[in-house]
Amino acid sequence: MAKKTDVLVIGGGMVGLAAANALLNRGRSVTILERKCPGAGASWGNAGLVAPRYIVPLAAPGVVAQGLWWMLDRESPFRIKPRLDPDLLRWLWAFWSFCSEEHVERAIPILRDLNLASRDRYEKWAASDELEEFGFRTSGSVVVHRTEKGGRKDRKKAQRAQKAGLNVSVLGRSELDDVLPNGPSEARGGVQYHQDALLNPVRLLSSLKHRIEDAGGTLRPGTAVTGFEERNGGIHAVQTPRAEWRANDVILAAGAWSAPLAHHLGLDLPIQPAKGYSVTYSDPAETPDLPYVLSETKVAVTPMDGQIRCAGTLELAGFDGAVDTRRAVPILEEAARYVPHISPDAPEQEDVWTGFRPCTPDGLPVIGRVPSVDNLVMATGHGMMGISMSPITGELVADAVQGDDSSVVDRSPLSPTRFG
Ligand SMILES: Cc1cc2nc3c(=O)[nH]c(=O)nc-3n(C[C@H](O)[C@H](O)[C@H](O)COP(=O)(O)OP(=O)(O)OC[C@H]3O[C@@H](n4cnc5c(N)ncnc54)[C@H](O)[C@@H]3O)c2cc1C
Q1: Residue 152, H or E segment
Q2: What would the pLDDT profile of 100-117 be if each residue is shown by its tens digit?
Q3: Does residue 382 line the site of ligand 1, with CB under 6 A?
């Protein structure tokens, strides 16, 4: 017999859990179907940065030329594995079409408002006793450079962020020493983003899970959605190997796997899995006072409960979770050479975590209803910002489910229908 619930959330990553939490707060009853366990996707080993500083989408002028150059560079932080995959080719074409100044100008206020609203909610979560402590610190972050070229690029980004109204300081070497006394000694300077914050993603996942269970929500780990039965323009049943589920509303929050699942509903969702890596060093002699990003390698270095996590690189290589020992490991090794108090040796393959960021070609998440499937709401495509944006995403999902059009940020640029 089919199982029934009010709202069914597919995916137990940060986005799915945040959506479930927001819906429970609105008095809905919620079941989450998770293929493995919460955090099995990208939400576990990431850098844990809540980063309003990320206001420029990946699709920006010059990125294609830079990307082509990087393809030839064995130690670049970005790679596309060449393959004849029609979804990838369509995605790249769309990405290329968004690489314009016009798109960047349009995206900046959208990303800024989402990020700041989300950070605000994190502060409230941290102050409330509904959630267990999750290592949230309004620390700010610093992007540090060790080359003049890196510094020039970072100062340009800083100007842009200042223009968008963010609180930013450009730091010379001695100012950097004051802000980040235990940072890389080779750094020439940096840019401090005062509104950035930090959390421990594993603790956040666990506290959200407990909060959801306390509020009456149900989490079903080990339950993979395999398909859908559609009837009368909506989802009649959600199929899993052991049971069929019926729900009033279905939220698709399966991160990078949302695209293949959407295919079952005849929907073409342009999301590519963008693999990233992290290594967590468990016994550093000291941890930095605040998180920082190494400008040249784009590796984020985060203090996390007495440990140091280095996270970075972006590979469009499909759902291949293998650790690229020729490219990614050398980048992490190079980064580690600049980070004090950790081993400068190449990390062992088994110590490297990989996760798939769900990336849209325009760099904006996909949140909202799909006109062709009545009871479906999408919540995915957060790319490099899924931790930063989860709380506000949860709220926007709940608004979409409830048919509330008075969201604190405009949902229309995030619509799943925007790609045509
Ligand atoms: C190296 C790295 C560093 C990062 N650093 C940051 C950072 O500092 N700050 C930030 O904001 N973001 C960061 N990100 C991005 C962030 O991790 C992601 O945007 C975010 O985790 C996406 O969350 P999600 O819930 O959408 O997807 P996921 O966390 O991937 O969750 C999707 C879930 O769906 C489940 N699922 C898949 N298929 C099915 C199915 N058929 N049935 C049921 N369940 C299914 C999966 O098992 C998974 O648990 C980083 C990412 C990486 C890779």
Answers
A1: helix 148-163
A2: 999 999 999 999 999 999
A3: yes
